[in-house]
Amino acid sequence: MICENISVSEEGHLLFAGMDTVALAEKYQTPLYLMDEDRIRKNCRTYVEAFQKYFGEGALACYASKAASFKQICRIVTEEGMGLDVVSSGEICTALAAGVSLEKAFFHSNNKTDADIAYAMENGIGYFVVDNAEELERIAEIAGEKHLTQKLLLRLTPGIDTHTYEAVNTGKVDSKFGTAIETGQAKEMVRHALQLKNIELSGFHCHIGSQVFDSDTFIRSSKIMLGFIAEVKKDLGFVAKKLDLGGGYGVRYVESHPVIDIAENIKEVAACIKAECESLGIAVPDILMEPGRSIVADAGMTLYTAGTVKRITGYKNYVSIDGGMTDNPRFALYGSEYTVEAANKMREAKTFLCDVVGRCCESGDIIQKNVRMPESIQRGDTVAVLTTGAYNYAMASHYNRLPKPPIVMLKGGQDYLAVRRETIEDMVRYDV
Ligand SMILES: *Cc1c(COP(=O)(O)O)cnc(C)c1O
Using one digit for the tens of pLDDT, what is the confidence trace for 384-413? Predict the structure, then answer.
C-alpha cells in the first residue's frame, strides 16, 4: 500500500488507521472525508524534530493551513509545536476560533486586501509575508494608523523552475507571486522597507512549488537566497534574521511516486546552508519551512458509494460516485493522480477498467481515469480515494448545490467528528 496507515482486513475490507472503512461509511454515510490524527502528528514530528536537530533553536516549521483549514487541524499542528501559515482572514479566523495564538503565524497571499491587513494586525499576527512593493507601503500605512510596528518577511522569487505542474510552480521570475531578485526589484524593495516607519524587516521568504521529491530544489533556492542575503548585507547593511524556504515536499499519491525521507532531506539542506553561509561570511539565519501537503495528504482518505456503473460496449466503462469535483477538484484542475479502490472488495481481482466519475453536470467531473476495479463493482459498493488529506476539503465547492462532506478524525482506534456534514438546508442559508 502507498502509506503505512492503509491495510486490508481478512474479509477484504480496506482499513485506514486500522479501522474498517466500510463500517465507517455506514456509520457516517458518504461522501465522507477521513483523517488519521496519529499520522498528522507523526508528520508534524518529522519536521519539528529534524528542524531542532539540524537547524537549531530559532528554526520553525509552519503548517500551511491552505492545505486543509479547520479548527481541529489548527489545534493538532500547534500542539505539535508548529507555526501556522495563513492566506486570508478566513484562515486567521479559523485559527483564532481554535484558540491558537497568532504569534507564530505568517500571513501570505499575493493580494491581501486592506480589510485582511487590518484584521490580521488587530489580532496580533506575528509576521506578514509581503508579496510586493505596493503591499509593503499599504502595510506600513495601516500599521502607522494603528500605532504599531509590524514584523515582516519579503517574498522573493529566486527564479527557479521546478519540474512540477505549471499551476503549482511558483518560483519563476514571471510568477504572480513575490518580487524578482533577477530584475533588481527585490533589492529596491529592501531599500524601501529599511526606510519605512512602523515595520520591522526580519528577513526573506521564497516558495518554489509543490510535489518536490528531492533536496536539490531547496538547495538551489537556498543558495540563491543566501547570495541575496549576503548582497544586501554588503550593499545596504541589512542583516536578515530569518530565511523561509517555503513548502512543497511531495507525497505518494500512487505506487510509482517515490518515498521521500524528509528528515534526511532536511539534514542535507541544513549542511548545505551552513557551508554556504560560511563561504559567504554571513551568520546562519533562522530557517523556516511551510509544509502543507506533506503534513496532511497521506492522513486523508475519501469514501464514496458507487452508483451507476455504465458499460459502453466497445468503448469504455464508467463508475459513478456520490461526490466528485465538488469534494475533490484536483483531477479536473491539474490531472492529479490518485489511487482508487473498491473498499469492500479488496480481495477481488481488478480486471474492470473504468473512469471513476462524479455526479456533477460537467463532463470534466472525473476523479481518475483508467482505474482498475473488480469486475463485480456495482451500485452500493464503497469506493475509496486515497491520499486526499490535502487540497480536497480545502478546495471543495457547492457546485450543483452539493453539500460538503463531513470530516471524521481517526485516533487510536476511535472515530470522532471534526467538521459536521452540511445539509441541503445549509445550501439555501444565505439566500434572501
Ligand atoms: C502552498 C504553499 C505552501 C505549502 O505547499 P505544500 O506543497 O502544500 O507543502 C507553503 N508556502 C506557500 C507560500 C504556499 O503558497
Answer: 999 999 999 999 999 999 999 999 999 999
Q: Kindly list the structural domains of the chain, giving each domain's residue range(s) and its CATH number in brackets, ordered by start.
A: 6-36+297-428 (2.40.37.10), 108-291 (3.20.20.10)
- CA dihedral sign, ordered 188, 189, 195, 196: positive
Residues 225 and 181: their CA atoms lie apart, in Å, by: 9
Contact 352/375 with Cβ under 8 angstroms?
yes
Contacts 24+ apart (CB under 8 A), 276-281: 276/222, 276/223, 276/226, 277/226, 280/226, 280/227, 280/229, 280/230, 281/230
The pLDDT tens digits of the residues spanning 48-65 come to 999 999 999 999 999 999
Q: Rounded to 5 degrees, what angle do the CA atoms 128, 129, 132 make?
A: 115
Q: How far does residue 416's CA lie from ligand 1's centre (Å)?
A: 28
Q: Is 155 in the pocket of ligand 1 (CB under 6 A)?
A: no
Q: Which of 47, 85, 295 to mutate for ligand 1's pocket (most ligand atoms within 8 Å of CB)?
A: 85
Give, to the nearest 10 degrees, the angle between helix 133-145 and helix 114-122: 50
**Amino acid identity, residue 149?**
T
| Cell of residue 249, nine digits | 515536499
Ligand 1 atom closest to the Cα of residue 170 is 15
- The torsion of the CA quartet 307, 308, 309, 313, rounded to 10 degrees, works out to -170
Beta strands in 284-388 (DSSP E): 286-289, 300-311, 317-321, 340-342, 352-357, 366-373, 382-386
**Does 361 participate in catalysis according to the annotation?**
yes
Model pTM? Answer: 0.96
* Residue 25 neighbours by CB under 8 Å, 6+ apart: 32, 303, 305, 343, 382
The H or E element containing residue 155 is strand 150-157
Q: Tally the C-alpha atoms within 13 A of residue 279's C-alpha that lie toward its C-beta.
A: 8
| Residues 303-338: tens digit of each pLDDT | 999 999 999 999 999 999 999 999 999 999 999 999
- With a 6 Å cutoff on the Cβ, whether 83 touches ligand 1 is no
Rounded Cα distance, 23 and 29, in Å: 9
